[in-house]
Write a structure and sequence with these properties.
The structure is a single chain. This protein is an all-alpha fold and 45 residues long. The protein is 49% helix and 0% strand. The chain has one helix spanning 6-27. The radius of gyration is 17 Å and the shape is rod-shaped.
Length: 45
Amino acid sequence: MLDAPWMGALSAAALAAVLALLTAVATSVGPEGPGLTETVRKAPE
């Protein structure tokens, strides 16, 4: 386990994190929902 290619693994993890963040930002401009960057509004009474 110590001989694993750590730089490659960390690079892949960082790329996945950036892709997830960009996806969250891109989907936040659409309809409301349970996304990380989306807000929930109360229904009009």
